[in-house]
Amino acid sequence: MNKKFAILFPGSGVQVKGMGKDIYNKFSTAKDIYDQAEEITPFDTKKISFSDYQGGLEKIESFQTVSVVFDLAIFKTLESNGLTPTVVSGLSLGQFAGIYASKMLNLKDILDLVMFFSKCIATILNRSKGRIYITRKVPLKSLNKLLQASNGKASLISENSTTSMVYGGDAQISEQIKNKLNSLGYAEIIEILNIPPVHTKMANSLANGMSNYLDTLNWHNNQIPLISDTDAIFINKNNVKQAILKQLVSGTHFINSIKKILSMGITNLVCIGPGVTIPTFVKDIADNLGLAINLYNVVNFDDLLQIITDLTSK
66 φ, ψ to 5°? Predict the structure, then answer.
């Protein structure tokens, strides 16, 4: 009997040149996902993923989609090896991968949705004067005090863990908050480039277009539980539209999603995607709760083999 486990999908900004190439070459299921995605998307998904073709990993209209394709290729490979997660969740962009994994949309619909979403937020990036910053080791209380003083011009974008927050909004106000935090002794405040201030009211103008688009999709009842990164509720066919729209204009609270998963007695957590961002958040949250977990970061062929062995063992 396979062990209970959760799959966690990453947000934007973790894409790296070469991601997915080895699993494409060694797993037929991953190859099938990439080949299908190539037929669905208007750009060369494989070349962008494997060699950063024409700088596609820097263009929001393409890198978000190829990042989700990478996530789904790994998910489907795990699934084809008999590993069905007990629950899934994702941070920001990762929620789209979670929607597919939960079986609410087919591959074409989820990739079309991601591309529509990417085009929408690209318009914010092109026209807005907003900025986003990630903070490390800044107490949420201290950050919220400064955000409240901004009169809505800057807000919390993501509560990732007990030590990592993202905030943003108006460029000038957001920079002033950064400088104030620096003056208080918090040095690790880093601007995130090429990502617009989504999850704030600056995305309100996109809500109607997104709402109308969501109505055109063929939604199914989910077969795997999906936890929202906004308010840690279970997402299903009846509330998925509201969940997506809320995430678009509201701050996410990934920390609460992880706490909910851990409260379900799940100690095997599989983080998908390049980099160590999601595993770092998860470890921080679990350590803060005093809970021991088995944490996996699945990026390549060797990682996949290891987790397939571990989670199918008696």
Answer: -70, -30
The angle formed by the CA atoms of residues 166, 142 and 148, to the nearest 5 degrees, is: 75
227 in Cβ contact with 234 (< 8 Å): yes
How many Cα atoms occupy the beta-carbon half-sphere of 210 within 13 Å?
A: 23
Q: What share of residues in the chain are helix, strand, coil (percent, to 5)?
A: 50, 15, 35
Q: How far apart are CA 87 and CA 269, in angstroms?
A: 10
Give residue-wise pLDDT tens across range 102-151. 999 999 999 999 999 988 888 776 666 788 999 999 999 999 999 999 99
Amino acid, res. 192: I
- Tell me the pTM: 0.94
CA torsion 171-172-174-176 (nearest 10°) is 160
Query: What one-character DSSP code corresponds to residue 231?
Result: T
What H or E segment, with its residue span, contains residue 155?
Answer: strand 154-159
What phi and psi, each to the nearest 5 degrees, are found at residue 125? Answer: -60, -40
- How far apart CA 6 and CA 293 sit, in angstroms, is 11
Do residues 282 and 294 make contact, with C-beta atoms less than 8 angstroms apart?
A: no
